[in-house]
# Entry
Amino acid sequence: MPARTPDARVAPVSVVVPCYRCADTVGPAVASVAAQLLRPAEVILVDDCSGDDTLDRLHEVARAYPHGWVKVFSVPRNGGPSGARNLGWANARQPYVAFLDADDTWHPHKLKIQMDVLASDPGIALLAHRMNVQTRDAPAPKLQHRQTVTVVPPSLLMLRSPFPTASIIVRRDLPFRFDEQRRRSEDYLLWAQILLSGYRCARVEQILASWHKPPFGAGGLSGDLAAMYAAGVDARRALHAQGLLGGPQMYIVHVLGLVRYARRRVITYARRFSSASRSQRTS
# Structure
């Protein structure tokens, strides 16, 4: 992994990456940050008490870049992505914080495009963009010639969340953090709290980051679809208890959540059936 000299222009962004047993994927994730046309000021890697060689790998990654650009922290006990992200957020030194999971990657134009949007509309507190699923060796998605930014209305009446976590940039000084009691839907809850509290949230209609496995039903915390659905229901109840989600809207969103859960079950079943069929043909 070649080290690079920092660019003259630097984005005032701290990138937080929670890491749990990710020794095989964190290198490409950080490399995608280093490959940005507009580099962030710092990258913060937080080991969530992996218990394997992940922490050593994080220090190895840090040494491959200019001194101090990648900072490594660790927590004494495994607490899930919320605690790791909050620790990174607490140690961030830039006005904006961006999030990247250790098994995802960014498009080289991501930060440049998002910072241009924030410069033109500094009232935005949360800025996201679209993501896709592709293999690691696939080329970066092509950018659309027309740049569109959608201001998201303060409502949860949508089937799909407009805020994938690896797409997010937020103002560091927002009075919200990830709920460390939650291991699922903690990101959904936080983005909803920001949106429903009246902060200006927007989305760039470009694919500027990629998942390298399906975002649900493929293992990890998102692999248990029933648990993910239950966590989403509980998060919406928490929003209702906080006065951010009215009763009628909560009922509608529950219905939409059930539709989304059923859709994910069908997609996951079809994906596994297709994989099993391919395995039988090649055996």
Summary: The beta strands are 10-19, 39-47, 70-74, 96-99, 104-106, 124-133, 149-151, 169-171, 200-211.
